[in-house]
Write a structure and sequence with these properties.
Layout: H1 3-8, E1 15-17, E2 20-24, E3 31-39, E4 45-52, E5 61-66, E6 78-79, E7 87-95, E8 101-108, E9 117-126, E10 129-132, E11 136-137, E12 144-145, E13 151-152, E14 158-164, E15 179-185, E16 193-196, E17 203-212, E18 215-222, E19 227-233, E20 244-249, E21 256-260, E22 264-269, E23 312-317, E24 326-331, E25 350-357, E26 363-369, E27 373-379, H2 381-388
Antiparallel strand pairs: 1-2, 2-27, 3-4, 4-5, 5-6, 7-8, 8-9, 9-10, 9-11, 12-14, 13-14, 14-15, 15-16, 17-18, 18-19, 19-20, 21-22, 22-23, 23-24, 25-26, 26-27
């Protein structure tokens, strides 16, 4: 599809596809990226993302749409943030134990992720659309980024998965010093303390999954574009082992995971690595870096940018996320991502997926379609059941 083809199909209407239904969400912006799905109190499905002209520019803001009560079409996109000096990215909706809705997002100047701040806003649902208040800075350190759903520990503490860009004075951010961490709040988000994941160079987009009885795993995107990595917690998320590789390749692009059917871990990602591709670009923000004369890092890990962001696959594990033998292709494309431009037709990525379990046993997936739009795919319960039947080691 060309950018023009996608624009014509951004109606929000769910249409039948093999294994379920799909829609392209409406949006007023030419670039739309980093989708996040949330089930709101009352059962409505919401999707938020960031949109504007180009990632890193100050016209990038957070948008959201809500699926109608009949589950047939997505509503018009509503603009939730508007910081004129920063690029507002990576939205996350958290429904608190009390039923309140909070929107977290990052905000950075240009491509300087090491200067990002994390903001929080209260959300309300009014006549089928989400509305946000002015919000406030969370107080987390500069260079903090988010992507995954918060979780609540058994002592009631709120836990927000992070990655830290770990600023280096005089050095341009490239991802070389990024590490994983968890922010913990014991006062319902008023203040946060940061607990680092040890030995996690290049491990970002930490996605925790509760496995029961206080056991958790976390899956990670990798700056080194080698494999999805995994760590464990056996104390309810208070401490984590060092990340180690799974059998799923990673392209230095986002992943997301949930637990389904009791003991199966489902992950959406692009299962391709730097070892499988010669495609490279200098950094994520090539189009913005003309005026940044700071040198790149000569230490830290070695981030790889430009590996294709496709296909988009659903991967299933029956051994707690160590291996993922069942892999279902949600969508195919060339995956070209050597530019972030949304209008010249060169970007073909299917990226930044998010996954949500449905009450009927199906799955909702949302992801970036060629940097031009957000695609929503609904996999029906029959399709998911057929995939689960193929998972070795699964307890029936």
């Amino acid at each position: 599809m060309s950018p023009e083809d996608i624009a014509r199909k951004m109606t929000g209407k769910l249409e039948v596809r093999p294994g379920g239904r799909q829609a392209i969400l409406p949006a007023p912006t030419v670039q739309n990226h980093a989708a996040f799905l949330s089930r709101l109190p009352g059962g409505r499905l919401a999707c938020c993302w960031f949109g504007g002209t180009l990632e890193g520019k100050s016209d990038i803001s957070i948008y959201a749409s809500v699926l109608d009560t009949e589950g047939k079409a997505w509503g018009e996109a509503e603009k939730l943030t508007d910081d004129p000096g920063r690029s507002e990215q990576n939205p996350v909706i958290f429904v608190t134990p009390a039923g309140d809705m909070l929107l977290f997002n990052t905000a950075q100047p240009a491509g300087n992720q090491d200067e990002a701040r994390v903001f929080v806003r209260k959300l309300v649902l009014e006549e089928g659309r989400l509305v946000a208040d002015a919000g406030r800075d969370t107080g987390l350190p500069a260079g903090t980024f988010i992507r995954a759903m918060p979780f609540v520990r058994n002592d009631g503490a709120w836990c927000l998965p992070l990655f830290r860009c770990n600023p280096r004075p005089g050095i341009r951010w490239t991802g070389a010093f990024d590490t994983a961490a968890v922010a913990v709040s014991t006062d319902e988000g008023e203040s946060w303390a940061v607990a680092d994941v040890a030995n996690s160079p290049g491990a970002v987009h930490m996605t925790p999954v509760a496995m029961g009885d206080g056991d958790m795993i976390a899956l990670y995107r990798r700056r080194q574009a080698d494999f999805v990595h995994r760590s464990e917690s056996h104390d309810g998320g208070r401490s984590w082992s060092a990340p180690s590789p799974t059998d799923v390749p990673n392209n230095n692009s986002s992943i997301n995971a949930v637990r389904i059917a009791g003991d199966v871990v489902a992950m959406v990602c692009n299962p391709v690595s730097a070892a499988q591709s010669a495609a490279r670009r200098a950094s994520l923000y090539d189009e913005l870096e003309g005026n940044d004369t700071r040198p790149e890092a000569s230490a830290g890990c070695r981030p790889v940018w430009g590996v294709e962001r496709a296909p988009l696959a659903l991967c299933l594990s029956g051994d707690g996320g160590r291996t993922f033998p069942v892999r279902y292709t949600v969508e195919e494309s060339p995956g070209t991502c050597l530019t972030n431009n949304s209008l010249d037709g060169r970007n073909k990525e299917l990226s930044y997926p998010v996954l949500l379990l449905r009450d009927d046993g199906g799955l909702d997936i949302a992801y970036t379609l060629y940097r031009r739009a957000i695609r929503h795919v609904e996999l029906n319960a029959e399709t998911v059941a057929a995939l689960l039947a193929q998972v070795p080691g699964r307890r029936s």
